[in-house]
């Protein structure tokens, strides 16, 4: 089964919108739009049209469905209608057109509802033509069971209802209804009633004592009915309390985690201060070294530069070759230069050479002193280099610390936002609420024990009463016949209850096996789940490899997978291909999980034959329908629509995207 | 998943007493058909079925 078309007329902001899903790509549809654009209204329109429900509630404000712009443009006394019409394709070429309409009349600034209509036109198979269905609600419930709607037409951000204890019975009843097993339950109730009637009828034919026994039988039967009803109420109450306890425990757990993170944040902040201090000390040491070593470093550099300049000048022959004072002194002793000039004592040349030698000695002394500094300068320079390396290493560590602390601060801002409003008093109040719920649950469970004992005792009394009736010796022929009929009904009831139990267990086992297989197929980290089970009350449990139940500990992505697996299992087991319309399917998930789940959704709903393909309509924001998600969903060639809202008149428009 | 045929099969396989088995099958078919209109008519039909099957029944 699939939705071929949905037409919205004056339905909230969808004043005139048609969602056309004819053709192959209509099996996998994405409607994307910003928050507030009207995506949820698409889903609401479908549940309203099919079941007259909005957000699973039947007591919504009727007038709120009518488009505001339609009200504004209507004239006084004018009739305005809100309509949603859904075209469906059924198996074997059949089709149906379902349409719901509310009509209003404008009166002043308000509107008053004046008429409601609901119509189904169905065609059992291709070519036979559409016929008006006399009981449209029954037709819808038979083909798209209302009990199943919360598991196929839902808000992805409200998936918890799939696993609530208080919803387990609802799911159980839904599955049994789909399996036709609820017929046996009805049969059993009738058999019980008939059996009692027959027994009392038999007793009435046994004189005054028989009358008395019949009266007693009626009293006990009524008491059983009353106490069984009380028991049912108590069981529901305890299941709701179990949900509350779970909810409160989760809430307290979250607050405790935040508080622990807050403590971690304090430690990290302290680490940041320590690291900053180390940096300050290192920088101070570095500065001190620089002050002490700077003159030496500068002299060394100058000395090295001077040497390099002299060497270069000699190499370039700008300076004469090295000067030898010993050779000059020898010439002075001989009194004659190499060029035969007179160097005897007292001559002008001799005085001049002696003056040069004296100057050279002065320069040579200064050079020796300078050379004496070289090793020291080199040592200082090396120490400066080492201290610089240490400082660089410290700076690197501090840089890393600063980056870490930057990200911690960011995380902290998020934590503080989550912590907002969580005062100690509020946490104490949560603990108190949890204690209250646990006490109430204990009381409820004790009450259940008492009621069960009471019902059992009454049933024993009833059995004793039945034996007494049967033991009456003066039964009329008619009474004897009624007694035999009653015994027969009783025996049939017992047999039927056994059949009912066997079939219930069979269906439950089948749903659990399908769910287990679907869920394991969907998970991308597969090795930690042992099995998924469903207990007699249809409560789902996820058992990990060490045998612990971990349903409440599953991540948001895993829970979403489990919910989708549950829907697909119900669909599979019931033999229904209920169209799936999901609002914000990936809303609560991170990018990686979004892409994983998108892949799962695309592949797991693919089906084999046309009748087996699960139609999926996803209502997504841009943060869900990311580039990565769109590339993954592309394997199903989805039909993609963009929904936009015109703020000026609060009306939406739907555009089909190409490609 | 169970369907009417599988429920009939369940009755067939799980109820040893032939008369009760036959009664339950008939009753089940009666329940899933919409032939009998109204509560009183249904109860009369129900009682008639009980009477018919009880007649030849020997408790086992």
Layout of SSEs?
The complex is a heterodimer of chains A (659) and B (60).
Chain A lengths: L1 E10 L2 E7 L7 E5 L6 H13 L16 H6 L5 E11 L5 E13 L2 E14 L7 E2 L3 H8 L9 E3 L9 H14 L2 H24 L2 H109 L9 H10 L13 H72 L4 H47 L6 H46 L6 E6 L5 E5 L11 H19 L5 E4 L7 H14 L11 E5 L6 H7 L5 E8 L4 E6 L3
Parallel strand pairs in A: 3-12, 3-13, 8-11, 11-12
Antiparallel strand pairs in A: 1-2, 1-4, 4-5, 5-6, 6-7, 9-10, 13-14
Chain B lengths: L3 H11 L3 H15 L6 H17 L5
Question: What characteristics describe this protein?
Answer:
heterodimer; A: 659 residues; alpha/beta; 6-stranded antiparallel beta sheet; 6-stranded mixed beta sheet; 13 helices; B: 60 residues; mainly alpha; 72% helix
Question: Can you walk me through this structure?
Answer:
The complex is a heterodimer of chains A (659) and B (60). By secondary structure, chain A is an alpha/beta fold. Helix content of chain A is 59%, strand content 15%. Chain A has 13 helices and 14 strands. A 6-stranded antiparallel sheet of chain A has the order 2-1-4-5-6-7. In chain A, strands 8-11-12-3-13-14 form a 6-stranded mixed sheet, covered by helices on one side. In chain A, a hairpin with a 4-residue loop joins β13 and β14. The longest helix of chain A is centred in the middle third of the chain and has 109 residues. The mean pLDDT of chain B is 83. By secondary structure, chain B is mainly alpha-helical. The termini of chain B are far apart. The radius of gyration of chain B is 13 Å and the shape is flat. Helices cover 72% and strands 0% of the residues of chain B. Chain B has 3 helices and no strands. Chains A and B meet through α5 and α10 of A and α1, α2 and α3 of B.
């Amino acid at each position: 089964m699939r939705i071929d078309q949905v037409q919205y007329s004056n339905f909230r902001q969808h004043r005139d919108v048609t969602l056309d899903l004819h053709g192959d790509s209509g099996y996998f549809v994405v409607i994307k739009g910003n928050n507030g654009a009207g995506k949820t209204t698409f889903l609401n329109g479908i549940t309203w049209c099919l079941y007259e429900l909005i957000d699973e509630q039947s007591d919504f404000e009727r007038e709120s469905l009518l488009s505001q712009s339609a009200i504004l443009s209507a004239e006084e006394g004018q009739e305005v209608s809100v309509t949603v019409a859904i075209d469906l394709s059924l198996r074997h070429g059949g089709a149906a057109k379902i349409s719901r309409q509310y009509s209003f009349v404008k009166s002043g600034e308000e509107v008053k509802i004046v008429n409601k209509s609901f119509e189904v036109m169905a065609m059992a198979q291709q070519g036979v033509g559409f016929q008006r269905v006399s009981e449209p609600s029954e037709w819808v419930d038979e083909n798209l069971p209302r009990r199943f709607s919360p598991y196929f037409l839902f808000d992805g951000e409200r998936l918890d209802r799939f696993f609530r204890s208080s919803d387990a019975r609802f799911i159980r009843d839904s599955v049994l209804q789909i399996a036709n097993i609820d017929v046996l339950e009805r049969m059993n109730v009738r058999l019980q009633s008939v059996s009692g009637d027959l027994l009392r009828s038999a007793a009435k034919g046994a004189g005054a004592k028989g009358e008395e026994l019949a009266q007693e039988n009626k009293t006990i039967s009524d008491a059983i009915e009353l106490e069984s009803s009380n028991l049912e109420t108590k069981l529901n109450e305890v299941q709701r309390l179990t949900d509350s306890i779970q909810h409160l425990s989760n809430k307290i757990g979250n607050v405790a985690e935040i508080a622990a993170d807050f403590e971690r944040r304090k430690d990290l902040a302290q680490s940041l201060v320590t690291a900053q201090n180390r940096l300050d000390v290192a920088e101070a040491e570095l500065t001190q070294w620089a002050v002490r070593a700077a003159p030496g470093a500068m002299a060394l550099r100058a000395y090295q530069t001077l040497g390099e300049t002299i060497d270069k000048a000699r190499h370039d022959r700008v300076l004469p070759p090295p000067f030898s004072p010993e050779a000059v002194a020898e010439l002075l002793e001989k009194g004659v230069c190499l060029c035969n000039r007179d160097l005897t004592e007292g001559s002008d040349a001799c005085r001049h050479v002696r003056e040069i030698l004296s100057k050279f000695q002065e320069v040579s002394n200064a050079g020796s002193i300078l050379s004496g500094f070289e090793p020291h300068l080199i040592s200082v320079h090396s120490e400066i280099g080492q201290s610089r390396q240490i400082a660089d290493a410290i700076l690197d560590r501090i840089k890393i610390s600063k980056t870490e602390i930057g990200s911690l601060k960011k995380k902290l801002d998020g934590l503080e936002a989550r912590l907002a409003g969580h005062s100690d008093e509020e946490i104490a109040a949560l603990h108190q609420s949890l204690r209250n719920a646990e006490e109430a649950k204990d009381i409820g469970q004790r009450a259940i024990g008492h009621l069960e004992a009471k019902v059992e005792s009454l049933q024993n009394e009833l059995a004793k009463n039945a034996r007494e009736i049967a033991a009456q010796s003066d039964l009329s022929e008619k009474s004897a016949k009624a007694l035999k009929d009653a015994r027969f009904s009783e025996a049939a009831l017992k047999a039927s209850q056994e059949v009912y139990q066997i079939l219930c267990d069979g269906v439950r086992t089948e749903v659990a096996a399908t769910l287990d297989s679907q869920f394991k197929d969907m998970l991308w980290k597969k090795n930690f789940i042992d099995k998924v089970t469903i207990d007699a009350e249809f409560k789902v449990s996820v058992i990990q490899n060490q045998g612990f139940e971990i349903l409440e500990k599953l991540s948001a992505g895993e829970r979403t997978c489990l919910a989708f697996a549950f829907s697909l299992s119900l669909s599979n087991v019931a033999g229904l291909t209920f169209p799936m319309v999901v609002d914000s399917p990936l809303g609560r998930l991170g990018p990686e999980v979004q892409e994983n789940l998108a892949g799962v959704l695309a592949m797991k709903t693919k089906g084999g034959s046309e009748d087996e393909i699960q139609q999926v309509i996803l209502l997504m924001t841009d943060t869900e329908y990311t580039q990565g998600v769109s590339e993954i969903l592309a394997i199903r060639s989805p039909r993609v629509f963009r929904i936009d809202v015109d703020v000026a008149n609060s009306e939406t428009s739907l555009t089909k995207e190409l490609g | 998943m169970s369907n009417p045929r599988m429920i009939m099969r369940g009755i067939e396989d799980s109820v040893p007493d032939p008369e009760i088995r036959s009664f339950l099958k008939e009753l089940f078919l009666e329940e899933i058909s919409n032939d009998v209109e109204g509560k009183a008519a249904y109860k009369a039909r129900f009682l008639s079925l009980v009477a018919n099957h009880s007649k030849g029944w020997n408790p086992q």
